[in-house]
Amino acid sequence: MRVVVGISGGIAAYKAVGVVRGLVLAGHDVHVVPTASALRFVGRPTLEAISRNPVETDLYDGVAEVRHVALGQSADLIVVAPATANTLARLAAGLADDLLGTTVLASRAPLVVAPAMHTEMWENAATRANVATLVARGVHVVGPVSGRLTGSDSGPGRMAEPEDIVATALDAVRRAERRPLAGRRVLVTAGGTREPLDPVRFLGNASSGRQGVAIAEAARDRGAEVVLVAAHLEVPAPDGVRTVPVRTAQEMLDAVLREADGAHLVVMAAAVADYRPASVAEAKLKKADLGDRLSVDLVRNPDVLATVAAERRPGRLVVGFAAETEPDRERLLALGRAKLQAKGADFLVVNEVGLDRTFGAPDNRVVVLAAGGVIAGEAAGDKRSVADAILDVVVPHPAGA
Ligand code: CTP
Q: How far, in Å, from the CA of 220 to the mean position of ligand 1?
């Protein structure tokens, strides 16, 4: 495989030699493109000796062979290590006034960047925004890790180790080879709705949003354009995913109906309140007015999943979840089968929940039911691997492919 290693000007440039060497030893044809400032940290002869290829730096070298785009066009993988704050900004902006800039712009290959900088620079809002932009475009970011920096300071900002960069880069190529959701829109709901009783109180549930967020990430990594309709997530929304925050079941229904337009796959992992208080008090409810007992009149909420399933067009796949507390597997599956039919979804992901199970936990165990109630797959493990297993089952389905 033909790999371009871009090196930008930071002290970690000396460690980039290890990245080049790792890729060469793995049998790849490596071409190094240092920026002008990188050459102040590491010499061209070193890079040529380790990469076993000539090192070009100048945009105006080899103009006859249209060198400034040829390198990018022919690359199967581009790794930028270290990527300084300046280089991340330049990549995010699409600047092309040096050989590394033109090479990256002229390439469709996976791009892996290994940031290295002082903690303040890494945490600066400008750098955060540039990294988010790059991730949204499918760029893979490895590191930085926490540790000793160049001066007397330490913290997040150290470049990842060369072997980790090489491993991430090769993995990015393998993943790019299987991006079955490229060009597809995926809508995921996650979290738990809250139904207000008064301005400060609500009826809610224990959903953390972890499983839905993991599904959004897994779909993003398979190349999909992902919209996450999120109700009160306890975990950060993933980078590279458009998040639409909602509070109540009704808001979730409105957002889902709006966003489902053009979606090829809809996964409803959110825990939606089935009932809401019939009226919401305008002012805080007071014990002095209520006395020792309080009854709350509840009315049914719309069923988001059933509505979306009923309104779907050909080519859209709808996946629901079922949260059940039934411990007996056969009875659990029977409940799942009944729910699959009642909701009209293509698939139903059944999981057993309890006071200290599933909700909020890092792990999950699910059974995926397909039309007719047949078991299409089972998975257990951390929520990301469960998410991948769910997509492995539903994506090859004719309507979802
Ligand atoms: N769901 C929904 N709208 C609702 C209730 C549930 O869209 N008002 C969706 C959930 O997102 C999930 C699926 O329906 O994908 C099943 O949710 P679950 O809570 O297991 O089932 P319920 O429909 O609430 O049924 P019950 O509480 O009677 O088990």
A: 25
pLDDT of residue 312: 84
State the pLDDT at residue 399: 47
Q: Which residues have C-beta atoms less than 6 Å from ligand 1?
A: 189, 249, 268, 270-272, 274, 301, 303-305, 320-323, 343
2-177: CATH topology? Rossmann fold (3.40.50)
pTM of the complete model: 0.64
Question: H/E element holding 365?
Answer: strand 363-370
Q: How much is the pLDDT for 218?
A: 95
Distance CA 186, CA 179 (A): 13
Provide the token pair at 169: 């880069």
Whether the per-residue pLDDT at 186 is higher than 90: the answer is: yes
Domain boundaries, the chain: 2-177, 185-394
> Token digits for 365?
């165990």
Question: What tens digit of pLDDT does each residue of 306-354 get?
Answer: 999 999 888 899 999 998 999 899 999 999 999 999 999 999 999 977 6
**Best of 232, 257, 303 for a ligand 1 pocket test (most atoms within 8 Å of beta carbon):** 303
Phi, psi of 80 (to 5 degrees): -110, 110
CATH of 185-394, one of 3.40.50.300, 3.40.50.10300, 3.30.420.40, 3.40.50.150: 3.40.50.10300
* pLDDT at position 120 over 60: yes
Mutate to test the pocket of ligand 1, among 228, 232, 265, 305 (most ligand atoms within 8 A of CB): 305
130 catalytic residue (yes or no): no
Q: Per-residue pLDDT tens for 208-232? A: 999 999 999 999 988 899 999 999 9
User: Which of 76, 83, 105, 53 lies closest to 165 in space, CA to CA?
Assistant: 83
Q: Strand locations in 161-215, DSSP E?
A: 185-191, 195-198, 201-203
Q: pLDDT exceeding 70 applies to what percent of the chain?
A: 96
* Closest ligand 1 atom number to CA of residue 343: 14
CB 44 within 8 A of CB 55: yes
Give every CB contact of residue 366 below 8 A, 6+ residues apart in sequence: 349, 350, 351, 378, 379, 380, 386, 389, 390
Q: How far is the CA of 53 from the centre of ligand 1 (A)?
A: 60
Catalytic residue among 130, 205, 301, 351: 205
- Give backbone dihedrals phi and psi of 47, rounded to 5 degrees, phi first: -65, -40
**From ligand 1's centre to the CA of 249, what distance in Å?**
11
Position 149, amino acid? L
| DSSP helix/strand/coil, 336 | helix
